[in-house]
Amino acid sequence: MAEIVVLYKTPTDAAAFDKYYVETHIPLAKKLPGLKKYAVSKGPVGSPAGPSGVHLVAILTFDSAADIQAAFASPEGKATGADVPKFASGGADLLIFDTKEV
Fold this sequence. Notes:
Helix content is 33%, strand content 31%. It is α+β, with helices and mostly antiparallel strands.
């Protein structure tokens, strides 16, 4: 399996971010070819030291990192990527990696 983790930093308007993310971005991202699972954080995102500066974490699961790359190269992936600047005023970090159970 492989995952892409998106760390959405604190936006200028959290309520507007949340509304747009749920109503517009999630439906776009759910169309990504090969998507197996889509989970998001619930409530505040903290760190061991306290507040993290991250508003929301999204974890999307695919069969492989190659499948993630192919998904984002597709028309649906391009639309999903192009949508991020429309609501993520705080910016976002994306991390892609293969996973293994230990």
